[in-house]
Amino acid sequence: MKCPFCGELGDKVVDSRESREGDVIRRRRQCLNDTCRKRFTSYERIDEIPYMVVKKDGTRERFERQKLIGGLLKACEKRPVKVADIEEIADMAEQLLIEKPEREIAGKDLGALVMQELKRLDQVAYVRFASVYRDFRDVDDFVQEARALRGSKE
Description:
Layout: E1 11-18, E2 24-31, E3 39-45, E4 52-54, E5 60-62, H1 65-75, H2 83-99, E6 104-106, H3 107-121, H4 123-133, H5 139-153
Parallel strand pairs: 4-6
Antiparallel strand pairs: 1-2, 2-3, 4-5
Helix pairs in contact: 1-2, 1-4, 2-3, 3-4, 4-5
């Protein structure tokens, strides 16, 4: 690490301490330049870059697991879907994001995963979620989706 006093790149760690919360490490360092030898402090913390969802209009929004779970809970309200199943879908969505090196995902890809899993779990919850995700405008959109669902079932 570069000494803030003389600019020397060599130093040694004299003392390390973790913060109470455990999210930061404080290091006391000493410059190895014989003419300087001053001590200074550095802090080490995890660089947390948020996962992002790229919306239809191109805007980016932070991925929020709780927001996804909230939408799933609304779609599954009064349906025989276990909370564990909803959490599993959220886990799959997070895993999909974690596996992507660029830390972002298109909203359509995320929605497709969620809809595929809901279709498998509960068709009514699937249509409810699809109505919001696909922005159904009227009853005809619901009927069309229900017919497509019935056609794929037969």
